[in-house]
Amino acid sequence: VDIVGVPEDTKDRDDVLECEFFDTRQAFLSLCQGNHYQYDTLRRAKHSSMMVLYHLHNPTAPAFVTTCNICNNDIEAGQGWRCEECPDFDVCAGCYNKDGGANHRHKLTNHPCVDRNAQNKEARQMRIQQARRMLDLLVHAHKCRTAGCQYPDCRRLKGLFGHATRCQKRAAGGCSLCQRTWSLLQLHARTCKESKCTIPRCRDLKAHLRWTQQQSESRRRAAVNEMMRQRAAEVARS
């Protein structure tokens, strides 16, 4: 069937939004569990979707909100106090100012303030742009066959590839040049969407990433099944 109305240029020109919570299913599950994001009702699904989009567009914002153990209100960044010995005891500034932490038997320390100014965002954007330049350079150097190529750093990256094929020490042995090349190949494999990519070790690395995610998912399912089994046993005993 002929499809009419499809533009010739279908390239997506929107900036790629990178967020660690969407790298793996386990990371996204941890975000939802830690913040009680649920999708069992329309009201909860709307709120959860809105908060997920908020974390996607604000990657430097705190992912998990701390709650005061006395008044049960959310504690803003840099406005609370935390116990140095108890694993999960936090007090907001208002409750701390009432008694100075005298109601708790351990010492309370002030929360470190999270810096969310423009400088942090600018530094993150610079890191993203630098990573994209390195990935573009990797693709160019792999396809380039020109001896005196004028592309910036093309010859240097070709030299790294040449060293990696000759080196006897390898990245596992501690070679810094091989480790740098291996890190660049891993970064490419995490972002590559081509099924028949010709970049060295790309398909092997993608297969390893899929295997790692499957192993993580299997461990999560086993933990959930064990928890359900223990709960069923407790109910049966009671």
UniProtKB/TrEMBL annotation:
TAZ-type domain mapped to chain residues: 121-205
Location(s) in or outside the cell: Nucleus
Source organism (scientific name): Aegilops tauschii subsp. strangulata
PROSITE patterns: CBP_P300_HAT (PS51727), ZF_TAZ (PS50134), ZF_ZZ_1 (PS01357), ZF_ZZ_2 (PS50135)
Uppermost EC category: transferase
One Pfam family from the record: zf-TAZ
UniProt keyword annotation of Zinc-finger present: yes
GO biological process: positive regulation of transcription by RNA polymerase II
InterPro entries (alphabetical): CBP_P300_HAT, Histone_AcTrfase_Rtt109/CBP, TAZ_dom_sf, Znf_TAZ, Znf_ZZ, Znf_ZZ_sf
Gene Ontology molecular function: chromatin DNA binding; histone acetyltransferase activity; transcription coactivator activity; zinc ion binding
Cellular component terms per the entry's GO annotation: histone acetyltransferase complex; nucleus; transcription regulator complex
Entry EC number(s): 2.3.1.48
Protein's name according to its UniProt entry: histone acetyltransferase
Superkingdom per UniProt: Eukaryota
Boundaries of every CBP/p300-type HAT domain copy: 1-61
UniProt keyword annotations, A-Z: Chromatin regulator, Metal-binding, Nucleus, Transcription, Transcription regulation, Transferase, Zinc, Zinc-finger
Residue span(s) of domain ZZ-type: 63-121
